[in-house]
């Protein structure tokens, strides 16, 4: 009898231990990038995979391959987000304008904790002074849109040429940080009363997608709008299944940050999915006001031919890059990877995480620690090397490098050092497929 009790107790203990292990693994997998332990399972990948396909990036015809903007959805996206997606057709798009600022980090922390993605319409001049926040927004899978360079109404709405100049300047600033061009545009103050027909027409011709909103949180009506009022505004009922909520993460919007958890809780409670805006969506735009005067100075046909006519080609879809690695597979949409000197370059973090591994940024040495399948290695973007850990440790020269603030690597070297050397690269139709041994 006593013996049976001991056996039962032992079995029970084993179950508890197993549960703890599974739970620990699960928690760790919710924090990609902060884990040195490779905890992601093939099942996780299979379940989350359909949503990783919704990546819309853009780029330059030759250097990069495809089109713009930004939702790199992590394969390790929390299970709750996946579940919600299956069960509801209602979607809320939280959008943050005027950043990045000193508040953006807090906003990103809240979004991360809630396991949701949002869209940031950033100002070029803010992006230029806080590139690390642009890189973080990008790496954490949020969408980045263009909100012009300096937000100055009198210049922006005096003539289209100035609006265009600021869009391009901001686009270049963001491209240097993340490697991709934002295709989404939001007009400072919204299009209402500010855009004439030319603005709408030429931005569209240039390949951009202009988004206004249908829910105004009211957080920029005046200075210091209190959090309760912002919460009320941001949860105003909307007709239809899509809510595009206007919020601000620019300087001085502390109350918006305070209101954010309540706004998220409200939409979760109502069964909404949270998603990022994409250039493929039908945009929400205010109707062109009949009382908006056509701007006095209109761009001439020569200016349009030189500036706008070829711009949309920057966002053309190119080929997908597919990687099959020992039973694990992932894809990079056009614009998510770049071709350089005949090498396929990919962002290190997203490549490793999508293949089920983990990365950890080591600030002291400015290197990236990587665990992928059974391999542990270090990438050094300054020296341009990869070093395998442990007794087999060897250093290989690789074109690991910073592009802006993001570390990029040749995918071939990643696979090789992780014990899966490339057997074949097949190109056919609209896909390059890398197959490993
Ligand atoms: Zn704004």
Return the domain count.
2
The general outline is: globular
Question: How many helical stretches?
Answer: 14
- The CATH architecture classification of the largest domain is Alpha-Beta Barrel
Q: Name the CATH superfamily classification of the largest domain.
A: Glycoside hydrolase/deacetylase
Low-confidence stretches: 16-87
Q: Give a quick account of the main beta sheet: strands, pairing sense, barrel closure.
A: 6 strands, parallel
| Distinct ligands, ions and cofactors found in the model | zinc ion
Q: Strand share of the residues?
A: 15-25%
Helix- and strand-based class?
alpha/beta
CATH C-level of the largest domain: Alpha Beta
Rg measurement, Å = 24 Å
Look up the CATH topology of the largest domain.
Answer: TIM Barrel
Distance between the termini: 55 Å
Q: Report helical residue fraction.
A: 25-40%
Arithmetic mean of pLDDT: 81
How many strands in all? Answer: 21
Keywords, separated by commas or semicolons:
437 residues, alpha/beta, TIM Barrel, Copper Amine Oxidase, Chain A, domain 1, 2 domains, six-stranded parallel β-sheet, five-stranded antiparallel β-sheet, 21 strands, globular, binds zinc ion
If you had to describe this structure to a student in words, what would you say it looks like?
The protein is an alpha/beta fold and 437 residues long. The protein folds into two domains: 79-286 and 303-315, Glycoside hydrolase/deacetylase (TIM Barrel, Alpha-Beta Barrel), CATH 3.20.20.370; 319-436, Copper Amine Oxidase, Chain A, domain 1. The protein has 14 helices and 21 strands. The chain has helices at residues 2-29, 42-52, 79-87, 104-114, 124-129, 131-139, 153-156, 160-178, 197-205, 227-234, 254-269, 301-307, 348-354, 411-417, and strands spanning 91-97, 119-122, 143-146, 184-185, 209-210, 215-216, 242-248, 273-274, 320-325, 328-332, 338-340, 343-347, 358-362, 367-372, 375-380, 385-388, 395-397, 401-403, 406-410, 422-428, 431-436. Strands 1, 2, 3, 6, 7 and 8 form a six-stranded parallel β-sheet that branches. It has a five-stranded antiparallel β-sheet with strand order 13-14-15-16-17, with helices on one face. It has a four-stranded mixed β-sheet with strand order 10-9-21-20. The chain starts with a helix and ends with a strand. Residues 16-87 have low confidence and may be disordered. Bound molecules: zinc ion (ZN). Zinc ion binds next to loops.
